[in-house]
């Protein structure tokens, strides 16, 4: 295990993330250009058309260059396994960031159509560059918007991307932690989740989404069957985290 994984808080880029958290919550970016630099790094170092190489290069960048707030390699394996269990035709992601999560979904479900909703148009551009380099741009679409905008983005998904009753097989939630539960309930309210659909939520332990966790616990065996995976915050082994995987019982 390398020093960066044992002592992540010694890294300036991690400290800079904390300093820039207000900017991140407002704009979706830390504010030091690391997201665009990640796309530059991928284009310069990853093999074109090779998803494995692109994902490994993003992980390398996050460990060796600048910390990134995507799900990362350790928790990413939990995401991979959940996607394979769901075997989705249509997957929805909330929170694109640099496109890493959607890329893992696309790799684990080669026949799936992946739609990712992202607040930041700058992040959307970074993700599209990375997806194009990985050779999967035709399978992943980034929609700039937010579920909590009064229905505009939900209507767009319905009207332009054919979201309808029972069409969503897999949902990955990794955006504003305070919006996890409200956005999930909005999607349920549209009737889009098919019975048996799988929902994965990152960072439920750290920085935490307590309302979402309480809801899943209260609904255990009723509307949901949930497993909490104990793991670590992305790109380190010091701070614990939870990935919550839930199957929709309808």
From TrEMBL:
Pfam families: Methyltransf_3. SUPFAM superfamilies: S-adenosyl-L-methionine-dependent methyltransferases. Keywords: Methyltransferase, S-adenosyl-L-methionine, Transferase. The keyword Methyltransferase applies. Gene3D superfamilies: Vaccinia Virus protein VP39. InterPro entries: SAM-dependent_MTases_sf, SAM_O-MeTrfase. PROSITE patterns: SAM_OMT_I. PANTHER family: CATECHOL O-METHYLTRANSFERASE 1-RELATED. This is O-methyltransferase.
């Amino acid at each position: 295990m390398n020093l960066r994984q044992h002592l992540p808080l010694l890294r300036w880029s991690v400290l800079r993330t904390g300093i820039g958290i207000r900017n991140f919550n407002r704009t979706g970016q830390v504010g030091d250009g690391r997201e665009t630099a990640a796309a530059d790094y991928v284009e310069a170092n990853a093999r074109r058309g090779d998803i494995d190489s692109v994902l490994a290069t993003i992980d390398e960048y996050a460990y060796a260059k600048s910390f990134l707030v995507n799900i990362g390699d350790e928790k990413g394996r939990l995401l991979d396994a959940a996607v394979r269990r769901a075997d989705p035709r249509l997957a929805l992601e909330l929170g694109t960031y640099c496109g890493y999560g959607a890329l893992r979904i696309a790799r684990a479900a080669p026949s799936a159509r992946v739609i990712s909703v992202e607040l930041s148009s700058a992040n959307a551009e970074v993700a599209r560059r990375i997806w194009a380099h990985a050779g999967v741009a035709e399978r992943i679409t980034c929609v700039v918007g937010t579920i909590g905008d009064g229905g505009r983005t939900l209507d767009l998904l319905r009207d332009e991307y054919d979201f309808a009753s029972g069409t969503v097989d897999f949902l990955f939630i990794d955006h504003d932690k305070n919006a996890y539960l409200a956005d999930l309930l909005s999607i349920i309210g549209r009737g889009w989740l098919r019975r048996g659909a799988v929902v994965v939520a990152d960072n439920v332990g750290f920085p935490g989404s307590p309302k979402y966790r309480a809801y899943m616990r209260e609904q255990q065996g009723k509307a949901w069957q949930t497993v909490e995976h104990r793991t670590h915050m992305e790109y380190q082994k010091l701070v614990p985290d939870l990935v919550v995987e839930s199957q929709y019982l309808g």
